Amino acid sequence: MKSIHTLLRDMIRAIETIQSYQVVSYENFLEDSKTQDAILYNLIVLGEAANKIPEQFQESHPEIPWSSMIGTRNIIVHGYDQVKLPIV
């Protein structure tokens, strides 16, 4: 089992990777499946790591949108046909 520190580091790396794609224009994002895949993958990593953070830690940090991150991951993984790229 990964430590909280490692999970948080995984989350930060995923966020930084997602942020690095902000230089891509909205139109390019919608046309570039590789960029879409990279962002969706990192959203999955983010949500998966968030889901493994102990509940006690999550409760002590209510400013972090834990359920949104985990929910987004679940939609991408289990409801992939419901993913709306313009919203991503």
UniProtKB/TrEMBL annotation:
It comes from the Bacteria. Signal peptide: none annotated. GO terms for cellular component: toxin-antitoxin complex. InterPro entries: HepT-like, HepT_RNase_toxin. The keyword Cell division does not apply. GO terms for molecular function: hydrolase activity; nucleotide binding; RNA nuclease activity. Keywords: Hydrolase, Nuclease, Nucleotide-binding, Phosphoprotein, Toxin-antitoxin system. PANTHER family: RNASE MJ1380-RELATED (PTHR34139:SF1), UPF0331 PROTEIN MJ0127 (PTHR34139). This is DUF86 domain-containing protein. It comes from Bellilinea caldifistulae.
